[in-house]
Amino acid sequence: MSGTGQTGGAASDAVGGLEQLLLDPTRLTIMSLVSATTWCEFAFVRDHAHLRDSALSKQLSTLGNAELVEIRKGYVGKRPRTWVRATAVGRERLRAHLAALQQIADRAEQAAAARPDADAEADAGAGAQQPHTG
User: Can you give the pTM of this predicted structure?
Assistant: First the structure.
């Protein structure tokens, strides 16, 4: 689906490079699924994201309006089908979002490693609060 080129609320957050639209777990799941394929059927995404048709349609509209996915409708025989794929912009924004999440996790791990006494302090504090049963 094509829009005006503006992404509104889907722009990357200035703090940490997180993609606001992909902070929602459902949209993150959908983008992860469709980014791993060239084109995938609506039913595949619905089933793997554990969504109802109406919920997936709404999320795909949101992602399509932000130009993160492209949607095509057609027929297989006489049966209507809908296919979805991530756009190049969508794939890049997903990659950047995942990289930002990884940086957050890495910084937290580094902060914890830089303060190894934090576990000892927590254990000591927990021990001090336990009742004496002597």
Answer: 0.74
